[in-house]
Amino acid sequence: MKELDEDGLVVRPNKTRLKRELADLQSLVMEIIALGPGDRARLHLDDKFLEGVALAAKMKPSTGRNRQVKYLVKLLQKQDLDQVRHWFETRNSKHAEENRHFHALEQWRDRLVEEGDAALGEFLEQFPQTDRQQLRALIRGAVKEKSTGKPAGAGRKLFRMLRENSVES
């Protein structure tokens, strides 16, 4: 049955909104295709859709794959997508948090190598469980590597130690 306005006239759907929704669904399908089989199973989508996704994942980019994606969009329109969108949001926020933590550790490593004892004091205030002697030895090694232009073996060890100590807190 068609939707009517207050005057009894048929309301035509907004084409721009419909196209935007289809484009959003298509990008969601592409994200689902990019997932591994284990992650796809966690989405709790119907079997017919998941079989189509597995088929599209095996296909090389072509017109056939484009048709398959359009078919998957059509199937996805019939499903409740709140859980799927929530799963992607949670996954993306977890990745973003991991990236922020990684960059903070890189900044600590760079500060420890550049600033020395001043940055070391701040780091030890924030992470008191850290082995001070081992940390100083790794910092000296990283500074020496940087000044001589050697590969960053001590710098990597320093980063590993920072990562281990920041996780424990």
Write the layout of secondary structure elements.
Blueprint: H1 15-34, H2 37-42, H3 47-58, H4 63-77, H5 82-115, H6 117-126, H7 132-148, H8 153-168
GO biological process, one term: assembly of large subunit precursor of preribosome
Family: Belongs to the DarP family.
Function: Member of a network of 50S ribosomal subunit biogenesis factors which assembles along the 30S-50S interface, preventing incorrect 23S rRNA structures from forming. Promotes peptidyl transferase center (PTC) maturation.
User: Which stretches are poorly predicted, pLDDT < 50 over at least 5 residues?
Assistant: none
Query: Can you count the beta strands?
Result: 0
CATH classification class of the largest domain: Mainly Alpha
Number of helices: 8
What is the average per-residue confidence, as pLDDT, rounded to a whole number? 85
Order of helices and strands: HHHHHHHH
* Head-to-tail CA distance between termini: 60 Å
Instruction: Quickly give the structural class.
Output: mainly alpha
Give the CA-based shape: elongated
The total tally of domains equals 2
GO biological process, one term: assembly of large subunit precursor of preribosome
Function: Member of a network of 50S ribosomal subunit biogenesis factors which assembles along the 30S-50S interface, preventing incorrect 23S rRNA structures from forming. Promotes peptidyl transferase center (PTC) maturation.
Main location: cytoplasm
InterPro entries: DarP (IPR006839), DarP_sf (IPR023153)
